[in-house]
Amino acid sequence: MYYFLAMLALTDLGLCLSTLPTVMGIFWFDAREIGIPACFTQLFFIHTLSLVESSVLLSLSIDRYVAICHPLRYSTVLTPARIIRMGLSSVFRSALLILPLPFLLMRFQYCHSHVLAHAYCLHLEIMKLACSSIIVNHIYGLFVVACTVGVDSLLIFLSYALILRTVLSIASHHERLRALNTCVSHICAVLLFYIPMIGLSLVHRFGEHLPRTVHLLMSYVYLLVPPLMNPIVYSIKTKQIRQHIVNKFEFIKSLRGFQQD
Questions:
Q1: HSE-CB of 206 using CA atoms within 13 angstroms
Q2: Residue 138: pLDDT band by 50, 70, 90 thresholds?
Q3: Sign of the CA dihedral with 53 first, then 58, 59, and 60 last
Q4: pLDDT tens for each residue of 170-223
Q5: Which stretches are transmembrane (predicted)?
Q6: What are the structural domain ranges in the chain?
Q7: What is this structure's pTM?
Q8: Fold of 1-258
């Protein structure tokens, strides 16, 4: 599980770093312009890392399924080599599916307003600035979402259906609660990721009449809330992580006390 948590942490960190240059540029230096190559590069990394996070959440659901439904085979099924292959396949799948998006956007002429509603570049927003038909981008965007987020969410739901069936077959009420308690952190992470993503997609596709503040709020919630909340959720619910954090604070406190003496 800790391998997958490390992947989730790196993905969240990458998402923050992808938006950091433009967000900090606006707030610190009032730099409100971005070149097309830089914009498309940022777009590629934001969407790629978002899909990678979806894949990592699926991997975590597989981890929970094996741990609860086949505990005796856990160490033989989820070996370090297999986990690394799962992580690399998630990265390659996401990158290959997102790679055509910048090239699809490059073929457009942009005659509408060049003002973006967010502090970073997103495919749904940029393609609406094009003068010509964007039907190909719409279709390919829906295809990418269906092949990644759609499949991942379906498999996550299926894994939890199997987990629930196994848990309900346990005779002891205490053991049932204990098994379900190990899934709480992952369920929270899934909700923190998918709800803002669905909300932002709906706002972009059907919320053109909504105030600009709503678009800004949803965009920041989508990219900043999961990286903020995931470490908190897993730190609270995972005893080992929580204990390491407590030990770090106690060590720092002892160093300060020693310096004062």
A1: 4
A2: confident
A3: positive
A4: 878 888 888 888 888 889 999 999 988 888 778 777 777 778 788 778 888 888
A5: 6-31, 43-62, 82-105, 142-163, 183-203, 215-234
A6: 1-258
A7: 0.87
A8: Rhopdopsin 7-helix transmembrane proteins (1.20.1070)
